Amino acid sequence: MIDDLTHTALAVTKDTVLRILNDIGLLLELKGENPFKSRAYYQAARALEKESGDIADLVATGAISSIKSIGPAIAKKLTELVTTGRLDYYEQLKASIPPGCIEMLKAPGLGPKKIHILCNVLGIATLSELEQACRENRLLDLPGFGQKTQEKILAGIEQVKSYRDRYLYASVAGRAEELTGFLRVQEGVTAVETAGSLRRLCETVKDIDVVAASAAPEILADAFAAMPSVAQVTAKGATKVSVRLFSGIAADLRIVSPGQFPYALHHFTGSKDHNTALRGRAKRMGFKLNEYGLFEGERLIHCSTEEELFGALGLCYIPPELREAMGEIEAAEGSAIPDLIDMKDVKGLLHVHTDMSDGSDSLERIVSAARAMGLSYIGIADHSISAAYAGGLSEEAVKRQHALIDEIMARHPSPHIFKGIEAEILADGSLDFSDDILETFDFVIAAVHSHFSMSAESMTNRILTALDNPLTAILAHPTGRLLLARKPYAVDIDRVIDRAVEHSVAIELNANPLRLDLDWRQIRQALEKGALIAINPDSHRAADLKDIRFGLNIARKGWMTPKHCLNCLDVKEIGDVFSRKRNRRRKS
Question: Dihedral through CA 540, CA 543, CA 548, CA 554, nearest 10?
């Protein structure tokens, strides 16, 4: 979604440039400009995304002007953006459109063309005005609208309202790192950490909480309030400062003495239910626990770290991501906190798209990125034939891709490339390639991408049928959710997990930060039933392979260990898993 440029001296990244190019295209559509004009910016973004060079180097050498689809006018704008950190044209374009029109883009069923009509014909400038217009049936006579469209927009508005003021973890984590990095080098600071839901690795967050220990709290408070990324100071005292950043997110800084830091960090990390349970335990032991310390009567029990705090309460250390009052205190009492999965445990990545379907990078470039990450294997899984919207592969394209994989493997045997496909689960539960075609792949990922409004019974039976196919190795993004955008479709996830376990089908934890599906609460449920989880990046460009880190966050929240994860198997072990799938089909 359209965002402000960071108001710092940090270098403008390629991702920022790509976002702004796409934002400009979208803003031009909202203004009703000539479609060729907006299309030029979209095409420039796609062309630049395929370039491997550093954006600063492309601008400095003038090579930006030689990229196909980037003409002189856009090249000039990109030069201004990269060299100054700002683009006046972009800022002026944003200022010319009511913020409410941009917010309307979040509502399902509303694209820039429809919003342009609403703004110019009905004079609607905010989401609230649009909601009122829907309730008064004022959209029914507009071209391209109707009763169903109006109902869909109204439902979408309710969804937007429920998600308002929440942000994806991935959108906020980098900003929090900038804040803590800034604070750590300030005078008198001895410790700084993020806290709250961000530290607990929650998939969405409401704000950024930071706890800092300082011998000079007033100086630190002033420095925090004066940071270049701060748009507004909403509250300021000697020990707490609340601000709103230019990105829109709120940030709170709590300043404590060095001796209070471990207690305050634990308290402000939460969750509320975890803190309540731990305070109850402390009380039963004759202690009092709060953000200022752990006390026996008036005596402070000195703890220099959170580990020592938990130890004083007879517990082993509880990682922040587990502090949700879901059995972690009981597990810590028996030293039964699991050895949670980490990136070092991951041997390879599956569910990777290339430019042969809807990815933006070539197979060669993706394999090179996987090699640079030290992966033992990579599993290519482009879309299948019925996914025309995503450039799904025909049978002939499959043969070409397999030949290319064989050719690359002959030259570079590491990482190993597994031949996979993301096969569409059709409405009746069948997969959109015949079993004879599916058998030519090393592994098959089955995925729902359509008919989301089916009843829970129909959707469940649809997925169960796909799981019954002996060639299905992985079930992709099992609930279909898009965080802060689309709710999960109706499905009996208990029956799905049971069937996946029965047929030895791995359930995907999709690491795309917009999905993070399976939900971490359901992961715990799946693990208790003996399910195997595949943490997959669902990457559409080489850089997205690193999204695996977001999936690992959620895996850790779900109490996952390496033994629960498909892609913690080495290349031979996972190859054997895939072979057993194909052999089972031949015997059936």
Answer: -80
Distances (CA, A) of 358 to 355, 441, 449, 506, 538: 6, 19, 14, 24, 11
Q: What are the DSSP calls for 269-313, one per residue? A: H--HHHHHHHHHHHHHTT-EEETTEEEETTEE---SSHHHHHHHT
Averaged over 381-398, what is the pLDDT?
92
What amino acid is encoded at 518 in this protein?
A: L
Q: Give Cβ neighbours of residue 539 (< 8 Å, ≥ 6 apart).
A: 349, 351, 352, 353, 359, 366, 512, 545, 547
Instruction: Read off the pLDDT of residues 483-513 as tens digits, 9 standing for 90 and up.
Output: 988 889 999 999 999 999 999 999 999 999 9
With a cut of 70, say whether residue 62 has pLDDT above it: yes
Residue 424, beta-bridge partner list: 447
Distance CA 57, CA 41 (A): 21
Q: Say how far apart CA 54 and CA 13 lie, in whole Å.
A: 9
Indicate the pairing of strand 472-475 with strand 443-447: parallel
Residues 518-530: what's their mean pLDDT? 96
Of 443, 435, 472, residue with least CA distance to 377: 443
| Residue 198 pLDDT > 80 | yes
pTM: 0.84
